[in-house]
Amino acid sequence: MTDTPTPAVRPGKRQGSARARLLAAAARRFYADGVSATGIDTITAEAGVAKMSLYNNFSSKGDLVMAYLDARHEEWLGLYRRRLEEIPDVQGVQGDEGVRDGRGGVLAVFDAYADHAAFTYEHGFRGCGLLNAAAELPAGHEGRDVVRRHKEEVESLLAGHLEELLPDRPEEARAVAEHLSFLLEGAVARAGLEGAATRLEHARTMAANLLDRL
Questions:
Q1: Are the C-beta atoms of residues 106 and 158 closer than 8 Å to each other?
Q2: Which three-class secondary structure string do you get for the chain?
Q3: N vs C: which end of the chain shows fewer Cβ within 10 Å?
Q4: Dihedral of alpha carbons 183, 189, 191, 194, sign
Q5: pLDDT digits over 73-115, tens only?
């Protein structure tokens, strides 16, 4: 899941630069306008490259969509990892390290979603870019599998942090992780409809309160 796709043809630095510009342009247009509504000509014009450059780097628009989904997932993981690095060092606090790290890890997941929502988007925040794309793809499309695996990974990360908090209660940790993943997804959907991260902030507060009661 975390491996990024490699272009079919990538002979030199110039092509790598074209690929990056194409992927960045596709990410902007797919998120702002939708996958189906965005044509190849729009992407190449925004990227400032010839149409042939697109086909030198991606075998088709479908290939570009898959690269976009993988890149969006990796982008979120980067935000999550940065949030993890910000958790205060509690070494030397005997018997409390796992508790604080686990709680901070759960909240880092929520913070990473809020960070994604805070990006500057052309038409404002429209919700989860992966779910938006999946909604346009037909049943059985491999892109939907990418999105499903992303959501499963998020829930798995939550479960891992909760197992640090509840080392002797693994079933409860998994159940709470599912609960929090539903809270997070609902908040993202509402935030996308409202074009603001307020619902994500509320969801983080709800999550923190729930963790304090465990």
A1: yes
A2: CCCCCCCCCCCCHHHHHHHHHHHHHHHHHHHHHCCCCCCHHHHHHHHCCCHHHHHHHCCCHHHHHHHHHHHHHHHHHHHHHHHHHCCCCCCCCCCCHHHHHHHHHHHHHHHHHHHHHCCCCCCCCCCCHHHHHHHHCCCCCHHHHHHHHHHHHHHHHHHHHHHHHCCCCHHHHHHHHHHHHHHHHHHHHHHHHHCCCHHHHHHHHHHHHHHHCC
A3: N
A4: negative
A5: 999 999 999 999 998 764 444 444 444 589 999 999 999 999 9
